[in-house]
Design goal:
This protein has about 325 residues and is of the alpha/beta class. Helix content is about 30%, strand content about 20%. The strands form two sheets. Strands 1, 2, 3, 4, 5, 6, 7, 8, 9, 10 and 11 form an eleven-stranded mixed β-sheet that branches. A four-stranded parallel β-sheet has the order 12-15-13-14. Bound molecules: threonylcarbamoyladenylate (TXA) and magnesium ion (MG).
Length: about 325
């Protein structure tokens, strides 16, 4: 496995070719780092599952580079979904459609839906475009962590998670820390109305404004096989406890205006919600590196991105 920093044009070309040759390429996106494979190559996609230790029936998101490519992977695209795609792509939102004949079971986990996303990160977009230009049609990529663990927000995190499992010819593209820090918003677009399956940086308010309609509030339980909808997910090794009652030796994460309980180890003090999302997973990892048993977290209040943070915190606390 090679780590490529300072992603030049040459590096992008090499990475796209590696995908075409059936290797895995971990790459930065604006949300978290993804572990990519050629979405049409069954063997390569199967390696994603084995490297992650992810059950075969959990679908992967296919990353594409433009709205025009939706119709290759999806069918019966509703008008509201086109609106969402045009408004928020490239960006941190994944749209789920009824699948076309090209979206094989090995991508969709056997479901008849397919998740698509156009990321806004320049290197991710350049990689997808280059991959298309050499005959590819989309990069399947889950977050580049072991199943159930915290998503990586740096190339170092990817390396830490997957070092022992990636092969010699696989690549990790390094572009520093992820800007957003939590995974994309997921919207089910297979029904008459959009349904939010996972909250993210494209907020419920933004979606309602875009569609000029109220949508059902985000509900925690859904019937789709979404890996992130399991309870013990997005978890570090330390036990995550929500609240503000920390004991001596506990890690502590809260907004900067909340004081550190006596004896607790302050891990981070974000000053706003964007920053909270950005540092969340790195803070969990740092707690693990320090060997902490427990991390006490005061969830952020409010709407918008705070909803996504509280969702991940609840899941991390299992
Ligand atoms: O921000 C993101 O979405 C990142 C970056 C790399 O793009 N990707 C990511 O992928 O978080 P992953 O696989 O770790 O999480 C995607 C979630 C999983 O829970 C998966 O089961 C669900 O989306 N999902 C994917 N395709 C789906 C589909 N067709 N129907 C329902 N859920 C789907
Ligand atoms: Mg994931």
């Amino acid at each position: 496995m090679e780590i490529v920093s300072g992603c030049t044009r040459r590096a992008i070309i090499k990475a796209a070719q590696a995908l075409k040759d059936g290797h895995l390429v971990a790459f930065p996106t604006e949300t978290v780092y993804g572990l990519g494979a050629d979405a049409r190559n069954e063997e390569a996609v199967n390696r994603i599952y084995s490297v992650k230790g992810r059950p075969q029936n959990h679908p992967l998101i296919v990353h594409i580079s433009s709205v025009d490519q939706i119709s290759y992977w999806g069918v019966e695209i509703p008008e509201y979904a086109m609106k969402l795609a045009r408004s928020f792509w490239p960006g941190p939102i994944t749209l789920i459609f009824k699948r076309s004949e090209f979206a094989n079971d090995f991508i969709t986990g056997g479901q008849d839906n397919i998740g698509l996303r156009v990321p806004s990160h320049q290197i991710a977009l350049a990689l997808i475009e280059e991959f298309y230009s050499i005959g590819g049609s989309g990069i399947a990529a889950p977050s580049a962590n072991r199943f159930g663990a915290v998503s990586p927000t740096s190339a170092y995190d990817v390396q830490e998670e997957l070092r022992d499992r990636l092969a010699h010819s696989d690549l990790i593209l390094d572009d520093g820390p992820s800007l957003i820090g939590v995974e994309s918003t997921i919207v089910d677009c297979t029904k008459h109305e959009p349904i939010i399956l996972r909250p993210g940086a494209v907020t419920i308010e933004m979606i309602q404004f875009c569609l000029s309609q109220n949508i059902s509030p985000w509900v925690e339980k859904n019937h789709v096989r979404a890996a992130g909808s399991f309870t013990s997910h997005y978890s570090p090794s330390a036990k995550v406890v929500l609240g503000s009652l920390a004991q001596t030796g506990d890690g502590f994460l809260a907004m900067s205006h909340i004081p550190t309980p006596k004896g607790a180890v302050r891990l981070a003090s974000p000053t706003n919600i964007d920053q909270y999302a950005q540092i969340l997973y790195g803070t969990f990892r740092s707690g693990d590196r320090q060997g902490l048993q427990r991390i006490v977290v005061v969830p952020p209040e409010g709407e918008g991105l705070a909803v996504a943070i509280r969702d991940r915190l609840k899941k991390a606390a299992g």
